[in-house]
Each structure stands twice: as structure tokens, then as C-alpha cells.
Design brief:
29% of the residues lie in helices and 43% in strands. It is of the alpha+beta class. It has one domain. Strands 1-2-3 form a three-stranded antiparallel beta sheet. A hairpin with a 5-residue loop joins strand 2 and strand 3. The radius of gyration is 14 Å and the shape is elongated.
């Protein structure tokens, strides 16, 4: 039950904010960021993005 509540909170937050920044750190310690948009939010809390 607790997990279902957390998933519902995550879904609500993801629906409000449709864009996120995906950031990686290279082997040379350089950050690289790119915007990603929410494509789909599954009932189990999985979020699909497109870039």
C-alpha cells in the first residue's frame, strides 16, 4: 500500500513537470546535460522519456 501511494505521488509530480534534464558525468569528470520530455507514465511508476 505504501508503494502505491508513492507511485501516485510520483505520477502527480511527473504530470505537472513535463520536461527534465538528464545529466551524465564523463570519465573526464565533465558534466553533460540534455532536456528530456515525459512520453508516458505507467501504472507501476515507470516513466518513459523522449529526447
Amino acid at each position: 500500500m505504501k508503494n502505491e501511494k508513492n507511485i501516485a505521488i510520483l505520477q502527480e509530480m511527473a504530470e505537472k513537470v513535463r520536461i527534465c534534464m538528464f545529466t551524465t558525468l564523463s570519465a573526464d569528470d565533465v558534466f553533460s546535460s540534455r532536456p528530456m520530455g515525459t512520453a508516458k507514465i505507467e501504472d507501476d511508476g515507470s516513466i518513459w522519456f523522449y529526447k
